[in-house]
Amino acid sequence: MAPVPDPTAFASARCPEHQRAAVATCVRCGTFLCGECTELLGDAAYCASCVAFVRSHAAPSQLLKVMIGLEVIALASIPLVMLLPVRALVRVGEAVVAVAILQRVPVLNAAAAGLGFWAATRERRRLLLEGLAVSPWVRWGRALAWMNLAFVALQAVLLVRGLVLLYSRMPRP
């Protein structure tokens, strides 16, 4: 008569690699893991192959996605900002007065650049602390922030140039 296997030996989950009792399961693929196979990322347990995948394919945070959207909207508004006149002529009674239009100042682009740099830096720091690869989303966020900042600098140069030109044409007493 064949020996009867111990039923408690098959009752617990076992690590497929080492045939030891499992202490965790991989949150991505569900493989049972022993203490030696368990790798922690944050508070989650992963197997070795899933850790490699997660480190190379880190998902961006929702904040970074929103900031990239804001940066794209700010860049798309550039043609509209450039079409605005620098000054408007307003008739006041018999006189015509030139009124400067402050809407030409690229406030949206300046805000998008600042928030974009902040969000990309925050996301990069989070990924590095968790041991993950820096995502292309971070690079795109920084690149878009640089583009918005370049537009703000261009507008500042044009504004200063216009003021210098205006000052040089003013009549001297």
Protein traits:
two-stranded antiparallel sheet, alpha+beta, 5 helices, 6 strands, two-stranded antiparallel ribbon, 173 residues
Notes on the structure:
By secondary structure, the protein is of the alpha+beta class. Helix content is about 50%, strand content about 15%. The protein contains 5 helices and 6 strands, in the order E-E-E-E-H-H-H-E-E-H-H. The strands form 3 sheets. A two-stranded antiparallel ribbon has the order 1-2. A two-stranded antiparallel sheet has the order 3-4. The protein has a two-stranded antiparallel ribbon with strand order 5-6. Helix 2 packs parallel to helix 5 and helix 4 runs antiparallel to helix 5. The chain is rod-shaped and about 115 Å long. The mean pLDDT is about 80.
Number of helical runs?
Answer: 5
Radius of gyration: 30 Å
Instruction: Outline the biggest β-sheet.
Output: 2 strands, antiparallel
Q: Kindly, what is the distance between the CA atoms of the first and last residues, rounded to a whole number of angstroms?
A: 122 Å
Secondary-structure element pattern, one letter each: EEEEHHHEEHH
| Mean pLDDT across all amino acids | 80
Oligomeric nature of the chains:
single chain
Low-confidence stretches: none
Strand content: 5-15%
As laid out across the biggest beta sheet, the strand order is 1-2
What is the number of beta strands?
6
Tell me, briefly, the overall form.
Answer: rod-shaped
Helix content: 40-55%
Secondary structural class: alpha+beta
